[in-house]
């Protein structure tokens, strides 16, 4: 099963910024803007950035946080048209990835999609779960 539709993949490739939500061990949610790339070989979202291994989001993921990653934009103001792709899943904090998307370099957070929701990208809104895990 393909994780993303062709239109969702095209949307991911044209965007540069998303938002990653993680949960601290105490239960506090943290949400940060992040740069990312789609790793077609693995079907993952790879997230990188300056001093990633020292970031709270990296430590949250290393401690076992599940994540939600959102990419959205306003395609038109008149008529008001919003596009959104939300990806929920498991993540891993990798200090030395050998295969990161977009040559992010350095430590990354790798998101393994388990649930994908989108609207404004394909003709109809979409919601699907990958595998048997509910997120």
Explain what this protein looks like in three dimensions:
The protein is globular and about 40 Å long. It is built from two helices and seven strands, in the order αβββαββββ. A six-stranded antiparallel barrel has the order 1-2-3-6-5-4. By secondary structure, the chain is mainly β. The protein has one domain (6-124): Roll (Pnp Oxidase, Chain A), CATH 2.30.110.10.
How would you summarize what this structure contains?
The chain has helices spanning 6-14, 56-62, and strands spanning 17-23, 29-39, 44-48, 67-77, 80-94, 108-119, 126-129. The protein is mainly beta.
Name its key features.
single chain, 135 residues, mainly beta, 7 strands, globular
- One letter per element, helices H and strands E, the order comes to HEEEHEEEE
- Tell me the quaternary state: single chain
Strand order of the largest sheet: 1-2-3-6-5-4
Q: Any low-confidence stretches, pLDDT <50, length ≥5?
A: none
The overall average pLDDT, rounded, is 90
Quote the distance from N terminus to C terminus.
Answer: 18 Å
Our estimate of the beta-strand percent is over 45%
Question: Count of helical segments?
Answer: 2
**Domain module tally:** 1
Write the topology of this structure.
Layout: H1 6-14, E1 17-23, E2 29-39, E3 44-48, H2 56-62, E4 67-77, E5 80-94, E6 108-119, E7 126-129
Antiparallel strand pairs: 1-2, 1-4, 2-3, 3-6, 4-5, 5-6, 6-7
């Amino acid at each position: 099963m393909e994780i993303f539709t062709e239109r969702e993949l095209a949307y991911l490739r044209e965007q540069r910024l998303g938002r990653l939500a993680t949960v601290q061990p105490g239960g506090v949610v943290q949400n940060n803007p992040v740069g990312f790339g789609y790793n077609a070989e693995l079907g993952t979202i790879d997230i990188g950035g300056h001093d990633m291994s020292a970031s709270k989001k990296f430590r949250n993921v290393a401690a076992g946080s599940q994540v939600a990653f959102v990419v959205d934009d306003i395609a038109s103001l008149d008529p008001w048209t919003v596009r959104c792709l939300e990806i929920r899943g498991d993540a891993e904090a990798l200090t030395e990835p050998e295969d990161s998307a977009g040559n992010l370099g350095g430590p990354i957070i790798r998101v393994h999609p388990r649930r994908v929701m989108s609207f404004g990208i394909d003709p109809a809104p979409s919601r699907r779960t990958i595998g048997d895990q509910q997120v």
